[in-house]
Amino acid sequence: MKTLEEIAEALKNTYMEHEVEAKLPLIEEIQKLKKEKNAVLLGHNYMTPDVFHGVSDITGDS
Predict the structure, then answer these.
(1) Cβ-based burial of 33 (10 A; exposed 0-12, middle 13-18, buried ≥19)
(2) What is one Pfam family matched by this protein (predicted)?
(3) What is the pLDDT of residues 12-47, one digit of tens each?
(4) Is the pLDDT of residue 62 over 80?
């Protein structure tokens, strides 16, 4: 699982700094819930960057 710092760096390529800071608490909560529920989230490249880079465990394009 990526750290919040790694996620923030990935998101800074797409979002402004204040947008990244606003998204991080929700990403952190989702990461916590995934761990509690033993869940895996699949991400596709058409998803928004915060979902694709922030909470997806397995990513792809097809």
Answers:
(1) exposed
(2) NadA
(3) 999 999 999 999 999 999 999 999 999 999 999 999
(4) no
Residue identified by tokens 């097809």 is 62
Structure tokens at 8: 């923030």
Tokens of 51: 């979902």
Contact 4, 28 (CB under 8 A): yes
Nearest to 14 by CA among 42, 57, 45: 45
Per-residue model confidence (pLDDT) at position 6: 95
Task: Give dist(CA 5, CA 24) in Å, integer.
Answer: 9
**Helix and strand totals (H; E) in the chain:** 3, 2
